C-alpha cells in the first residue's frame, strides 16, 4: 500500500524517523485545525515542520460534510434552494440565483428584463458582503481587529436590505422559479440607495488602513504565491485566479442574467500572493458598486416574475377565489409540474469563483442527480503545494486569503 | 476558423471512432460518450490538440444508474472548458457495476485529484494510477458508498426522529 | 454621565451591609462573578458562526455581557458555544475540546443543527450535540438572529448565577458525565 494512503500523522512520522537517521535533523508534526481561531471554518492540515518552516503537509476535509448532493435527490426544486443557501453562506443570494437560473435553463423559462436586473443587484450586493468578510478577516489574522469591527457594521446594513427583500439575514432562500416572491418594498430601495451613498467612504478608509500599511504588506507580499500555470492546472477560478494574472470572469466570458448590459472592469493581480488577492477583492467591491449603480439607473419597468403559472405559485387571493389558480397551487405543491428529461450545467461567478450546478432531471419533481461544482473544494487542494517551504505564519495568512468557506468545501 | 460543436464532433469522430459515440447537444453544450478503455486518450486529445485546446477541467462527478444494463450502471462525467473559444463540452464514460474502474486524469489536470477522490468516496469508482485514492469527505472507516441509489439518506440508527412524521416507513417508527 | 432616564439598577443579592462591608452568601458572590465574565470558546463550524461574528461585532456586541475575550484555547474558556452543524467526523474533536476545558464549564448549542441536526437529517450529520456532550442551553434558529444568541447567553448567565458552588463535585454531576462516558 502506498505511503500516501496512510493517515498523514503516520506518513510524516515515518518521514521524521527517516530524516533523523539520514540527516540528524529533528522534524516535528503540527496539527493545524480543525478548529481555528478567528472562526475560519472546519478543515484540518497536518504539517511536517522543520522549526518554523513547512516541509510538507496534508489536508483533511469533510468535517462538515452534510451530504447536500444526496439530500438533493430527495427534495423538490423549491426545497433545494434552502440547501444552496448553505454552500457559500457568506453570499447566499448568489447561490440561490445560480440555482434558479439552472432550473430555469432546464425547464426552458425566459426571464423578464426587470427580474434579471434585480437579480444582478442582489448578486453584486452579496459579492460585496462576501468580500467584506474575507478582507476584514485577513486583517484580523494579521492582528488588525479594528477593520473587521468597522466594516461589519456595513454588512449589517446589507443584512437589513436582505431582510426587506426576503425576510432572512444570512441564509436568504431568495427567489422562486421565474423571479422573486414579492416586489421589493420602498424601504428596500431606500436602504439600497443609502448603502451606496455611505459605503464608498467606509471602504476607502478600510482599504487605506491596510493596503499601504507596512506590517500588513510585509506579512502578505510574497506569501502564498501562485503562478498562472499552476492556478489553471489546479482549477482555480475567481479572485484567487485573477490575482495570479488570468482575467477569467464568467460574468464577462459567458454573460448570464444581462451582465452584458453593464460596464465594469476585471481587476487582475500580478504575483498571485496574499497581497494581490486582498487587492483584487477590494477592487472587485468597487466594481460591484459600479454595477449596482448602473442597474439602478437602467432598471426597466415590468413584472417581478416570469409568467409561468406551471411553476410559480399564484397569489393567495387568487387561490381562494379562482379555480384555475387553486389547481395550479395544488399541482405545484404536490409536485405535478411538467419537468423534461434533460441534463444541464450552469455556472455563475460566485464570491470564490465558478459555482456550477450540474442537474439531471428525469421528469419527477426531484432531481435524479445534482452535483455542485464548488470552487473552494477545487482550489483548496493546492494549499499544501502553495505553502511548502514557507513559514507557518505565511500558511495562516494564505489560508485566510484564499477564503475557504467550509460549507462550500464539504457540501 | 473558429471552433464549433460540429468541428469538435468531426475531429473526435475522425480520430476515435468507434470509441466515441452518441454525440448530442443539450442546451447548447455538446456531450458524448467515450468508452472506458480509451477515456484517458480522448481527454488527452481534447486537452492537447491545438485546434480543440480544452485547457480547463471544470468538473468531475459520478452518477449511478441502477436501472441501466449491467455494464452501464456507473458513469463518470467530465466537464471541460476551452477558454480561448469559450466552448464547453461534456464527456460521459459508462462503467460496469461489477468493477467500476477508470484511468485517472490527474496527470493531465492537477485539479482532478480531489474531485476523483470525492467520486470514489461517493460511488466506489476506482481511479487507476491516482496518487492518493482514499476517502475525502466521509469518515475513513466507512465501508459503503453513500451516493449509490440503494443507500438510504437518513441515518437508520437514529432514535430521536419518528419516521412516521416524515411519511416514511423505516426502522425508526 | 449618561442622560438616559430609564436605567434599571439591578438589585444586589440578599445580604447584610454595614460601613465598608457587604456580607452575603458565597454562592451569590461566586455566581455573580462567574455569570458576568463568561469567556466563550466559539466553536463555529458553519452559517451560525457567521451570525456569531455579527454578534461579536460592533452592532450587537457580546462584550458588554462580559464575553469580551474570545478564548480559542479550551483551557481558558468558560463556555463552549457550538455554532453550526457537527458532522459525525467532527464529533470526537468536539468531545476532545469539551474534555480539555477546565471546570466550571457550560455548553450552549447555537442553531438548529447543533441542537438536533437541523435540516440535515442525513447519514453523516450528528443529530444534535447532546449525543456526545451535555448541553445547558439550546438556542433555536437557522441561523438564530444575534439577539437570539444573546438571549441564550443571558439565559445561561441566569443558570450560572443560581448554580450551587458544590455542583461540580456532586453525585448527580458525576452521573451526568458518566452517562456520556466523559472522564
3D architecture notes:
The complex is a heterotrimer of chains A (411), B (173) and C (183). Chain A is mainly α and 411 residues long. Chain A has 2 domains: 3-60, no CATH class; 68-307 and 337-410, Cytochrome-c3 Hydrogenase, chain B (Orthogonal Bundle), CATH 1.10.645.10. Chain A contains 18 helices and 6 strands. In chain A, helix 6 packs antiparallel against helix 7. The longest helix of chain A has 29 residues, at 113-141. Chain A is globular and about 85 Å long. The two termini of chain A are 29 Å apart. Chain B has 173 residues and is of the alpha/beta class. In chain B, 20% of the residues lie in helices and 27% in strands. The longest helix of chain B has 12 residues, at 5-16. The model of chain B has no long low-confidence stretch (mean pLDDT 91). The longest helix of chain C has 16 residues, at 146-161. Chain C is globular, with a radius of gyration of 18 Å. The termini of chain C are far apart. The A-B interface holds A 2, 4-5, 7, 61-62, 65, 67, 69-71, 73-74, 105-106, 230, 232-236, 248, 253-254, 342-345, 347, 354, 356, 358, 360, 369, 371, 373, 377-378, 380-382, 410-411 and B 26-27, 29, 31, 55-59, 61, 63, 77, 79, 83, 86, 88, 90, 109-115, 118, 122, 131-140, 146-147, 151, 153.
Topology:
The complex is a heterotrimer of chains A (411), B (173) and C (183).
Chain A (H helix, E strand, L loop, with lengths): L7 H16 L4 E5 L11 E7 L2 E8 L7 H5 L4 H9 L6 H16 L5 H29 L3 H22 L19 H26 L2 H7 L7 H6 L5 H5 L6 H4 L20 H24 L18 H6 L1 H12 L8 E7 L4 E7 L8 E5 L1 H6 L2 H5 L4 H10 L4 H5 L1
Antiparallel strand pairs in A: 1-2, 2-3, 4-5, 5-6
Helix pairs in contact in A: 3-4, 4-5, 5-6, 5-12, 5-17, 6-7, 7-12
Chain B lengths: L4 H12 L3 E7 L2 E6 L4 H10 L7 E9 L9 E9 L4 E9 L5 E3 L8 H12 L2 E3 L45
Parallel strand pairs in B: 2-5, 6-7
Antiparallel strand pairs in B: 1-2, 3-4, 4-5
Chain C lengths: L14 E4 L2 E4 L1 H10 L4 E5 L2 H10 L22 E5 L7 H10 L5 E5 L1 H5 L20 E3 L6 H16 L9 H9 L4
Helix pairs in contact in C: 1-5, 2-5
Amino acid at each position: 500500500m502506498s505511503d500516501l494512503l496512510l493517515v498523514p500523522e503516520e506518513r510524516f512520522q515515518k518521514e521524521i524517523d527517516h530524516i533523523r537517521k539520514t540527516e540528524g535533523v529533528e522534524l516535528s508534526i503540527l496539527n493545524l485545525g480543525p478548529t481555528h481561531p478567528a472562526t475560519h471554518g472546519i478543515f484540518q492540515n497536518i504539517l511536517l515542520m522543520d522549526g518554523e518552516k513547512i516541509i510538507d503537509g496534508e489536508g483533511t476535509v469533510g468535517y462538515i460534510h452534510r451530504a447536500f448532493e444526496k439530500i438533493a435527490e430527495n427534495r423538490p426544486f423549491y426545497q433545494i434552494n434552502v440547501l444552496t443557501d448553505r454552500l457559500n453562506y457568506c453570499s447566499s443570494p448568489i447561490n440561490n440565483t445560480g440555482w434558479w437560473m439552472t432550473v430555469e435553463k432546464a425547464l426552458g423559462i425566459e426571464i423578464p428584463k426587470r427580474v434579471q436586473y434585480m437579480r444582478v443587484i442582489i448578486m453584486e450586493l452579496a459579492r460585496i458582503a462576501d468580500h467584506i468578510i474575507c478582507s476584514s478577516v485577513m486583517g484580523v489574522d494579521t492582528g488588525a481587529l479594528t477593520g473587521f469591527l468597522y466594516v461589519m457594521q456595513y454588512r449589517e446594513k446589507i443584512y437589513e436590505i436582505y431582510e426587506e427583500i426576503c425576510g432572512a439575514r444570512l441564509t436568504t432562500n431568495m427567489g422562486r422559479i421565474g423571479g422573486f416572491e414579492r416586489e421589493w418594498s420602498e424601504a428596500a430601495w431606500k436602504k439600497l440607495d443609502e448603502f451606496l451613498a455611505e459605503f464608498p467612504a467606509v471602504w476607502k478608509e478600510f482599504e487605506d488602513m491596510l493596503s499601504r500599511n507596512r506590517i500588513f504588506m510585509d506579512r502578505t507580499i510574497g506569501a502564498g504565491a501562485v503562478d498562472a500555470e499552476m492556478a489553471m492546472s489546479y482549477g482555480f477560478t475567481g479572485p484567487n485566479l485573477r490575482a495570479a494574472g488570468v482575467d477569467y470572469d464568467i460574468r464577462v466570458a459567458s454573460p448570464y442574467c444581462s451582465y452584458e448590459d453593464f460596464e465594469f472592469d476585471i481587476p487582475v493581480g500580478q504575483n498571485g500572493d496574499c497581497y494581490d488577492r486582498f487587492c483584487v477583492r477590494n477592487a472587485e467591491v468597487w466594481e460591484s458598486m459600479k454595477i449596482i449603480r448602473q442597474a439602478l439607473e437602467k432598471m426597466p419597468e415590468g413584472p417581478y416574475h416570469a409568467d409561468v403559472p406551471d411553476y410559480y405559485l399564484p397569489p393567495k387571493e387568487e387561490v381562494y377565489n379562482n379555480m384555475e389558480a387553486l389547481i395550479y397551487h395544488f399541482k405545484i405543491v404536490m409536485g405535478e409540474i411538467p419537468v423534461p428529461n434533460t441534463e444541464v450545467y450552469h455556472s455563475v461567478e460566485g464570491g470564490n469563483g465558478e459555482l456550477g450546478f450540474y442537474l439531471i432531471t428525469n421528469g419527477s419533481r426531484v432531481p435524479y442527480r445534482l452535483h455542485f461544482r464548488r470552487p473552494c473544494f477545487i482550489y483548496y487542494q493546492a494549499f499544501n503545494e502553495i505553502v511548502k517551504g514557507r513559514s507557518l505564519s505565511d500558511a495562516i495568512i494564505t489560508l485566510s486569503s484564499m477564503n475557504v468557506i467550509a460549507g462550500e468545501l464539504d457540501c | 476558423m473558429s471552433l464549433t460543436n460540429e468541428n469538435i464532433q468531426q475531429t473526435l469522430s475522425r480520430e476515435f471512432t468507434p470509441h466515441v459515440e452518441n454525440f448530442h447537444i443539450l442546451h447548447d453544450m455538446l456531450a458524448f460518450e467515450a468508452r472506458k478503455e480509451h477515456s484517458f486518450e480522448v481527454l488527452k486529445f481534447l486537452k492537447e490538440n491545438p485546434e480543440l485546446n480544452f485547457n480547463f477541467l471544470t468538473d468531475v462527478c459520478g452518477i449511478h444508474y441502477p436501472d441501466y444494463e449491467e455494464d452501464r450502471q456507473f458513469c463518470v462525467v467530465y466537464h471541460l472548458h476551452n477558454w480561448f473559444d469559450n466552448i464547453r463540452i461534456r464527456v460521459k464514460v459508462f462503467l460496469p457495476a461489477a468493477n467500476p474502474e477508470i484511468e485517472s486524469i490527474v496527470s493531465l489536470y492537477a485539479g482532478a485529484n480531489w474531485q476523483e477522490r470525492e467520486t470514489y468516496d461517493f460511488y466506489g469508482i476506482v481511479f487507476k494510477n491516482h496518487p492518493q485514492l482514499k476517502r475525502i469527505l466521509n469518515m475513513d472507516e466507512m465501508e459503503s458508498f453513500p451516493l449509490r441509489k440503494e443507500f438510504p439518506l437518513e441515518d437508520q440508527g437514529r432514535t430521536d426522529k419518528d419516521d412516521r412524521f416524515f411519511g416514511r416507513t423505516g426502522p425508526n417508527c | 454621565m449618561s442622560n438616559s432616564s430609564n436605567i434599571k439598577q439591578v438589585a444586589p443579592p440578599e445580604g447584610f451591609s454595614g460601613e465598608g462591608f457587604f456580607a452575603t452568601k458565597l454562592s451569590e458572590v461566586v455566581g455573580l462573578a462567574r455569570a458576568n465574565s463568561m469567556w466563550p470558546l466559539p466553536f463555529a463550524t458553519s452559517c451560525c458562526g457567521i451570525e456569531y461574528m455579527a454578534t461579536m461585532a460592533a452592532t450587537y456586541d457580546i462584550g458588554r455581557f462580559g464575553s469580551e475575550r474570545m478564548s480559542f484555547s479550551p483551557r481558558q474558556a468558560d463556555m463552549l458555544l457550538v455554532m453550526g452543524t457537527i458532522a459525525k467526523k467532527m464529533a470526537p474533536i468536539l468531545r476532545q475540546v469539551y474534555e480539555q476545558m477546565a471546570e466550571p464549564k457550560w455548553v450552549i448549542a447555537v442553531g438548529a443543527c447543533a441542537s438536533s441536526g437541523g435540516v440535515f437529517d442525513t447519514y453523516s450529520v450528528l443529530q444534535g450535540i447532546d449525543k456526545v456532550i451535555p448541553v445547558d442551553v439550546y438556542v433555536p434558529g437557522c441561523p438564530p438572529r444575534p439577539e437570539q444568541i444573546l438571549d441564550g447567553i443571558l439565559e445561561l448567565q441566569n443558570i450560572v448565577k443560581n448554580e450551587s458552588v458544590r455542583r461540580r463535585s456532586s453525585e448527580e454531576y458525576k452521573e451526568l458525565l458518566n452517562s456520556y462516558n466523559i472522564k
